């Protein structure tokens, strides 16, 4: 092991590594950690073409279907396959989380920490033309990146995206219940039903829709920040429904029969175990590592954040 004092890591982090018998060089050796990409199922036959374009052999990850590893210096953003939405970068750990969910054909899946969207895309790939995925994230700008990914890769047809707090989100999957739930009675004006989603709706229409959604949602989810629907696909169950149907929440008896089949919660972590994340601080500044990763108050807060108990049926 090299002398710990030779590395520019903060003293508190070096002490943490020493106490746990970890070699700090794993965080500073830039060429040791591979990158991972996933090729869409309908594009796997084009692996030789991708290899020729990026001038690199794709090493298949045997335990993770559709995944390939590449050297860390290889860039895919300029490749034709990336521009055409046939491949995307995703950590193997993220893929493992989706694989562990064991998604089945027709499942309705809730992704409570959806941004920036790689796991969301993989879930939709696995479901194909069945089921649905509802993506939720508390950060609007990060969820907007999810929306961009869905459009680029053509995977948003059966997806909804909500800016919302995952610890309180309680909206049912639309394709699972078919109509109003038994917990409420709403007189809906279907003249105001959702039309097919478009990124270029007139400003006046967006303002009216936003005001109406906030009014409905605040009645259905008292005492919390109402979810904001920022995207929905053609077959996500939204088109043709009124706002009160979309924003109906789960009551006890309803959730048991028409909740989500699977829920994915890849909650924020301390990041000290992520080699690639720690390496980013070489550019961000090592001094910020103490504040953004090692701060004990932040760690305590994360423990509370990670204790999420969504009110849904999970297989």
From TrEMBL:
<dbReference type="GO" id="GO:0001510">
    <property type="term" value="P:RNA methylation"/>
</dbReference>
<protein>
    <recommendedName>
        <fullName>SAM-dependent methyltransferase RsmB-F/NOP2-type catalytic core domain-containing protein</fullName>
    </recommendedName>
</protein>
<dbReference type="InterPro" id="IPR023269">
    <property type="entry name" value="RCMT_subfamily_9"/>
</dbReference>
<dbReference type="GO" id="GO:0008173">
    <property type="term" value="F:RNA methyltransferase activity"/>
</dbReference>
<feature type="domain" description="SAM-dependent methyltransferase RsmB-F/NOP2-type catalytic core">
    <location>
        <begin position="99"/>
        <end position="170"/>
    </location>
</feature>
<dbReference type="InterPro" id="IPR029063">
    <property type="entry name" value="SAM-dependent_MTases_sf"/>
</dbReference>
<dbReference type="InterPro" id="IPR049560">
    <property type="entry name" value="MeTrfase_RsmB-F_NOP2_cat"/>
</dbReference>
<dbReference type="InterPro" id="IPR023267">
    <property type="entry name" value="RCMT"/>
</dbReference>
<dbReference type="Pfam" id="PF01189">
    <property type="entry name" value="Methyltr_RsmB-F"/>
</dbReference>
């Amino acid at each position: 092991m090299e002398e710990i004092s030779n590395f520019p890591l903060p003293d508190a982090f070096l002490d943490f590594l020493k106490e746990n018998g970890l070699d700090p060089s794993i965080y500073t050796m830039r060429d040791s950690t591979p990158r991972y990409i996933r090729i869409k199922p309908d594009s796997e036959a084009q692996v030789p073409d991708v290899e020729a374009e990026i001038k690199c052999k794709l090493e298949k990850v045997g335990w993770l279907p559709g995944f390939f590893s590449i050297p860390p210096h290889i860039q895919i953003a300029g490749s034709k396959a990336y521009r055409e939405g046939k491949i995307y970068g995703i950590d193997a750990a993220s893929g493992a989380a989706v694989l562990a969910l064991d998604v089945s054909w027709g499942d309705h899946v809730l992704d409570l920490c959806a941004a920036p969207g790689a796991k969301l895309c993989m879930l939709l790939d696995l479901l194909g033309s069945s089921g649905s995925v509802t993506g939720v994230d508390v950060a609007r700008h990060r969820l907007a990146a999810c929306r961009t990914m869905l459009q680029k890769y053509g995977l948003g047809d059966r997806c909804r995206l909500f800016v919302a707090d995952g610890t309180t989100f309680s909206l049912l999957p639309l394709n699972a219940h078919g109509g109003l739930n038994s917990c409420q009675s709403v007189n809906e004006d279907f003249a105001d039903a959702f039309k097919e989603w478009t990124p270029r709706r007139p400003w006046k229409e967006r303002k009216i829709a936003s005001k109406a959604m906030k009014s409905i949602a605040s009645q259905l989810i008292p005492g919390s920040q109402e979810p904001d629907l920022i995207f929905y696909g053609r077959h996500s169950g939204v088109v043709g429904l009124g706002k009160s149907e979309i924003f109906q929440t789960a009551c006890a008896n309803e959730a048991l029969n028409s909740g989500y089949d699977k829920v994915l919660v890849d909650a924020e972590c301390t990041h000290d175990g992520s080699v690639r994340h720690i390496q980013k601080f070489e550019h961000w500044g090592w001094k910020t590592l103490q504040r953004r990763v090692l701060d004990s108050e932040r760690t305590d807060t994360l423990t509370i954040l990670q204790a999420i108990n969504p009110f849904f049926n999970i297989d």
